[in-house]
Amino acid sequence: MKTFKKLTIIGVLTFTLFSFTSFIQEKEWKVPAKYETMKNPIAADTDTAIGKSLYTKHCKSCHGKEGYGDGPKANEMEGELGDFSTEEFQAQTDGALFYKTTFGRDDMPEFSKKLPEDEDRWLIVNYMRRLAE
Q1: All domains of the chain, ordered by start, with CATH?
Q2: What is the pLDDT along the chain (133 residues), one digit of tens a residue?
Q3: C-beta of residue 74 within 8 angstroms of C-beta of residue 62
Q4: Number of H helices, E strands in the chain
Q5: pTM for the model
């Protein structure tokens, strides 16, 4: 009987620990292949002032001026905001960044309605690339 109780307690603790760690782990953001391979139609040096202006208006409050994820609203967010200057972030394709900016998830809002023109979201992608410099 003691063995059964011990095994039950160990089982419950293991299940609880597993549930907790899977809950707090960051979910992978799956990008559909269509977007992963999508090419940015806007040259990187096109309308950089507009890209910066759009980023400042729509992204800076959470992601911060330099894209470190330290904007004034960052503490209100539950997920990881990322650091746009890292190699890991910059290794994402332009299409993946466009997808994430367009459709959002969790605390990241969908911008297809706020910024209905694809060109505006591509300009933001170009500006996010500049934050690695």
Answers
A1: 29-130 (1.10.760.10)
A2: 677 666 556 655 555 545 444 444 457 889 999 999 999 999 999 999 999 999 999 999 999 999 999 999 988 888 788 899 999 999 999 999 999 999 999 889 999 999 999 999 999 999 999 998 7
A3: yes
A4: 7, 0
A5: 0.77
